[in-house]
Amino acid sequence: MKTYTCAVIGCGYWGPNLVRNFLTLDKESITKVCDHDSQRLDHMKKIYPNLDTTDDAQTIIDDPEIEAVAIATPVFTHYELAKKILNAGKHVFIEKPMASSVKECRELIKIARDNKLTLMVGHTFLYTTVVRKIKEIIN
Question: Quick one: which of 43, 84, 100, 110 is 20 to 30 A from 94 by CA?
Fold first, then answer.
């Protein structure tokens, strides 16, 4: 399985969990984390001293070394961030909900498809045995 060079935008409630999980998979997978709150970035640096931090998401979008970005920001920012990231040719993981409207979601899906990029929405229980069993029953 290919490991991508990733970044996480949003280090509030859920972002630190994403960083931890990415680093569990591969210590080199996360290259940068972003948050507007300097206290959150300081907190992340205390936990993971080698993390590169920024308060400017555009530096992540513009970085040619970053191949995939996880978004864990307030929902009203999801669409614009994901659109910019996808248009920059990077894969995107967005914490739920994906966007504020069906129209925005459809546009993001189209951009990802047109550019042959992965667009994934986080769902805490997606891979649990209970949800898998329900899906099996429905199918």
Answer: 43
